[in-house]
Amino acid sequence: MLTEALKKGSTEFLILSLLEAEPRHGYEIQKLIESRSRGVLTFNVASLYPLLYKMEDRGWIVGRWVEKTGERRRRFYKLTAAGRAALDAQRESWREFVAAINRVSGLGYA
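User: That's the sequence. What structure does it adopt?
Assistant: Structure tokens below.
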């Protein structure tokens, strides 16, 4: 299915985009992607965490454990300067891709 192929190529971009606004934990990232895509994009949390660890190894994000009274411990991820640069590059690539699709399909003028 095309949605699955696009999802695989866009997950890092979506995560970086969500972390641009504020630090978030994995479950929150998963739920935001699902809700903002109106259920079109869904992720298993178990598959999301290995990707977060990989992005952390690349230096794009940094995670830290936060404990709040009465709540379980959560790892919050924050965008780094390298992550910001990666996001900017990916955002430009997606703009070019969408513009090309629009030109070819006749969906719009870009």
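Residues 91 and 97 are 10 Å apart (CA to CA).
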